[in-house]
Amino acid sequence: MDLRVGLIGFGYWGPNLARNLGEIRGVTLAAVADKRADRREAVAGRHPGVRLFDDPAELVARPDIDAVVVATPVATHYELGLAALKAGKDVLIEKPLAATGAEAEMLVDTARRERRVLMVDHTYVYAGAVRKIAELIDGGELGEIRYYDSLRINLGLFQSDVSVLWDLAIHDIALLQFLVRRRFLSVQATGGCHLGEGVESVAHLTLGLDGGAQAHVNVSWISPVKIRQTIVVGDRKMLLYDDLEPDEKIKVYDRCVVFDEDRPALLRDYRIGDMWSPRVDRREALAGVCAHFAECIRTRAEPLTGGAQGLESVRVLEAAEWSLRHTGQLVKL
């Protein structure tokens, strides 16, 4: 069955979604809606034959559209996603799922009631390197996961409607959901607005997870360099994931601290072994997102990054925002 998909929003992320949707066998990018005439003209130049709309409601109402992809500002995700679900469309929404937990919960409930696929574009989950890390963790290579540390910084892109937490830290929340698969127990956040934009441009997030694991996430829009590095520490081995590294994106270190209950607390042994870099799939992560969405529509399967994951991530971010506004107070989830 040929799936006919409509895309709402052709700004920053929309063109990437359109390109990847158009490359999937059995999927047709049938329509694009955007209020700006210059963006509709861009669609016409890149994707001839695609129907164009200035009003998203017209696209959603078309009976020949099977699924809708939403790539618009966060404040519009709920309204557009809800309308598409109620119109009987399967829906993929750019992260985050919605602007509030209440909105996200309504989307999840509506998708369940209408028996529609609801998926969130948590892109990193579909990266080959992340899939390899999941394989290593699930196979016991690292042992019990104890600690997660992420540095996700760059200069811009500045958002006017959401803070850097919602823009960048959400990636790490999604990665923790996929890789560690433990319930979030607590969150603390600090940060600041350093450029007078009214939303935080720098933030530091601490997450407590079930089983005693802890995660630290450092995000910024005002760094002179772009860094995307994540460290995952297990009780057997450790791992460094550098998304910007062209060749060795993952480095596994056969290193750990050896604990011996019979020795004094300050006397620890260290195992220092080899470092190795596994081969990873180089396919574009967004291609994986779009292909998985199409497959879930065909099989009616629950997506890896479905409504439940989207709702949880929004609730964590809401709690982090509250903590940030209250001088880093601990919030239990």
State the gist of this model:
The protein is of the alpha/beta class and 333 residues long. Helix content is 33%, strand content 30%.
Structure report:
It is a single chain. With 333 residues, this protein is of the alpha/beta class. It folds into two domains: 3-116, Rossmann fold, CATH 3.40.50.720; 128-282 and 316-332, 2-Layer Sandwich (Dihydrodipicolinate Reductase, domain 2), CATH 3.30.360. 33% of the residues lie in helices and 30% in strands. It is built from nine helices and 15 strands. A nine-stranded mixed sheet has the order 14-13-12-11-7-10-9-8-15. Helix 5 (101-114) links the parallel strand 5 (90-94) and strand 6 (118-121). Helix 1 (14-22) crosses helix 8. The radius of gyration is 21 Å and the shape is globular. The N and C termini lie far apart (43 Å). The model has no long low-confidence stretch (mean pLDDT 94).
CATH superfamily of the largest domain, please?
A: Dihydrodipicolinate Reductase, domain 2
Query: What level of helicity do the residues show?
Result: 25-40%
Query: Would you tell me the structural class of the helices and strands?
Result: alpha/beta
Number of strands: 15
Total helical segments: 9
Distance between the termini: 43 Å
CATH fold annotation of the largest domain: Dihydrodipicolinate Reductase, domain 2
Strand content: 25-35%
Tell me the number of structural domains.
Answer: 2
The CATH C-level class name of the largest domain: Alpha Beta
* Global shape: globular
Note the quaternary state here.
single chain
CATH architecture name of the largest domain: 2-Layer Sandwich
- Rg, rounded, reads 21 Å
Along the chain, the helix and strand elements come as EHEHEHEHEHEHEHEEEEEEEHHE
Instruction: Please outline the major beta sheet.
Output: 9 strands, mixed
Unreliable residue stretches: none
- Biggest sheet: strand arrangement: 14-13-12-11-7-10-9-8-15
